[in-house]
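Entry for 2'-monophosphoadenosine-5'-diphosphate complex. Fields follow.
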Amino acid sequence: MAELTQHAITGTTSLVGLIGWPVRHSLSPTMHNTAFAALGLDFAYVPLPVQPEHVEQALRGLVALNFKGCNVTVPHKQAVMRYMDELSDAARLTGAVNTIHIKDGKFYGYNTDAYGFLQSLLEVNCDPKGMRVAVLGAGGAARAVVYALARHGVGSMVVLNRTAQRAAFLVDDLADAFPDSDLSFEPLTSKALTALNSHIGLVINTTSVGMYPDVDSSPWPDDVPIAPHVTFCDLVYNPLETVFLRQAAAAGVSTIDGVGMLVHQGAFGFEQWTGHEAPIEVMRQACMAKLRGN
Ligand code: ATR
């Protein structure tokens, strides 16, 4: 596989980056730089640690420095929105921007997590259209997932969250945009999951439970049996195999890990910035290699 070090950065190199605080653990620089190298593109992707009080200056700086765009991570995904000249539907309805394309000095803000999530299902032939789905969690990632699924036309969706009120807000917000979708919420408890269990085709973990360093935890309670026909999908990709996915595998049901979403959300930005089709498999292998090295 092409290595970043083979690519000389010169005065003609197009720059993109990642703004967040902190940014040092992100896989995006490796994923994008490997993809640029694989296609022989004169691009470079740089991590840019930006403190919350400097978000506006950082964005103006990107224009001044002729950047093509950037990714945005915590804690800036909401803060950057007010500076965008245009927002995609996904960004507007999820209330978060994770990808910016800078064109003629203007900011175009996208939320590519929704697109990335749906692609990660479709690429493994899991089409949620018409399915009954349980979404665990009600944070920013859950918003992207619920938006993507509502737009795609799932049969119905239940959002379950430790703080049930937050799930209620999420459902309320998105129900306005998707009046025909069957959206509801529940507290994330064994009782609620047991009641839903036999009707659900897909369970998605959008919580941070199970994410490094919390690697021994799962949002799925041990006392709730896993129905035979269900698919378990985890947005957590570090570790690659979470306890949640191990519970599913032990029950003999299908699993989808979080790398697909990571790669496809990145692919969207890659294509905006470069105008080239993203080399999905190269990007996936770059992420997997980095994750296995962890
Ligand atoms: P993100 O933007 O990545 O979704 P977030 O907005 O901080 O991150 O949301 C984290 C999600 O993980 C929330 O749904 C949170 O539940 P609460 O709203 O009740 O805080 C969930 N979460 C985090 N730690 C959890 C835990 N130990 N048990 C259950 N849910 C947890």
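NOTE: Residues 137-142, 161-163, 166, 188, 206-209, 219 surround 2'-monophosphoadenosine-5'-diphosphate (CB under 6 Å).
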